[in-house]
Amino acid sequence: MAEGRIIKAISGFYYVENEEGTFQCRGRGNFRKRGISPLVGDWVVFEAENRTDGYVLDVKERQNELIRPPIANIEQALLVFSAKEPDFSPILLDRLLVHTEAHDLDTVICVTKTDLGLTASDEEKLAVYEEIGYPVHRTAMDDEQALQEFRPVLQGKVSVLAGQSGVGKSSLMNQLRPELELETNEISSSLGRGKHTTRHVELLPLPEGGYVADTPGFSSLDFDGIEAETLSHFYPEMAARIQECKFRACTHRSEPKCAVRTAVEDGDIADFRYTSYLQFYDEIANTKRRY
After folding, report:
1. Per-residue DSSP letter, 142
2. Which of 41, 115, 211, 268 would be 203's cystine partner, CB 3.0–4.6 Å?
């Protein structure tokens, strides 16, 4: 038996890589009974008579896992947004940041298509994210210097790219590794969003070392596993002030002597971030009441 990492899963096959190469495997064992499904990124035990006829026997313990995209053992999340087509969306970015914080992932924000122009309002919001502590990188198709400055961010790490369809994830990967020739599509003029060009999750090796997971696009995420009462823990600027609130179970919505609301009023927490917090809080609470 051997060990390796699943770098691609498609049509019931798992492609497992180790120092000897890549092996095409099927699943074997009591995965269903154990409530486990092998994921891209998993370290697994497998056996293979040759490169195309192997079986995954066991999945080793995971450091973390994401539901959407389905992937495991990620070290870093790269959240990709575009300046235009589609327009930069702070509310979606906040939604994704809640998920990466909940999974304790290092997070980097990348804004593509900056040659199309960021508004002054968008630049102000990006400055807020930088002040919170999130690295923000700006890229454009013809900006080779920006691309070179961006490369070290991915070096030696297993990163997952996430973002709406059409923001340029596949285009960004093609810039990093031109030989991939990943399929890209233009924004639909009728729908205002891009077509899904990536149809499966795959770990793509980088020349500098490390992997990037190019994942199927998405436009929304639910908050499974996140409670309204702990939502503020996933806003770093709020989490830093929770202990200063008068009430231990403060929801930061209407309680007196709330340090978070005071920080919002004083301009130390951005209004748009607090607004997204309130929206997500209500969404989680309403979903819980329905079920």
Report:
1. T
2. 211
Are 92 and 278 a contacting pair, CB within 8 Å?
no
Domains of the chain: 2-61 (2.40.50.140), 71-214 (3.40.50.300), 228-290 (1.10.40.50)
Per-residue 3-state assignment (H helix, E strand, C coil) for 94-108: HHHHHHHHHCCCEEE
- Please give the DSSP secondary-structure letter assigned to residue 186: P
Structure-block tokens of residue 273: 């971030």
The owner of tokens 């092996």 is 23
Mean pLDDT of the chain: 87
Q: Can you tell me the distance from the alpha carbon of 195 to that of 271, in angstroms, rounded to the nearest whole number?
A: 33
Q: Which of 31-35, 51-55, 151-155 has the lowest mean pLDDT?
A: 31-35
Going by pLDDT thresholds of 50, 70 and 90, the confidence category of residue 169 is confident
CB 42 within 8 A of CB 6: yes
Name the helix (H) or strand (E) containing 235: none
List Cβ neighbours of 148 (8 Å cut-off, separation of 6 or more): none
d(CA 126, CA 90) in angstroms, rounded, equals 9
- Report residue 6 as tokens: 């699943």
Q: What is the value of pTM for the model shown? A: 0.83
d(CA 20, CA 119): 50
- Torsion of the alpha carbons at 276, 277, 283 and 287, rounded to the nearest 10: 150
Residues 269, 263 contacting (CB under 8 angstroms): yes
CA distance 243 to 118: 37
Q: Are strands 158-162 and 76-82 parallel, antiparallel or unpaired?
A: parallel
To 5 degrees, how large is the angle CA 225–CA 228–CA 229?
110
